[in-house]
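This week, work through this protein record:
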Amino acid sequence: MSAASEKAFALYESKIGEDEGTGDWFQITQETINGFADVTLDRQFIHVDPERCATSSPFKVPIAHGFLTLSMLPHLTKSIPTDADLTKGKVMGVNYGFEKVRFINPVPVNSNIRANSVLSAALHKGDAIQVTRTITVEIEGQAKPALVAEWLVQTVYG
């Protein structure tokens, strides 16, 4: 174990359960939804056809794909401030996956979303630390969030 990973792990352990902050708002436009539909080949009308949504969808407007909202997590969380002491000696971070993801509320087109992060767990693995964060994606003006995910990232220290 590197000295950097030991120091970072001690700091992570001391912060478990703490709210790490909330990121900036990001607008989900029809162009963003259409681009995601093109990449994933998921062109269900509830995402890409505003006219049909107006008459045939319970939402009356297009909604973002749940996986689009999930895939926005790296962008939505990058504006959450990071403790500089956690980056000392950091070589890289690797997405390790998710323990749990729940799509709670659809994201209507042109909605603003943002992420909140709570540090849930930390596990020391040699020169790496596996961190679990509970990420909640809020929709501006709505009581229920778009999604809640337990996101695992491994940070490697030199």
Observations:
- The first strand starts at residue 19 and ends at 22.
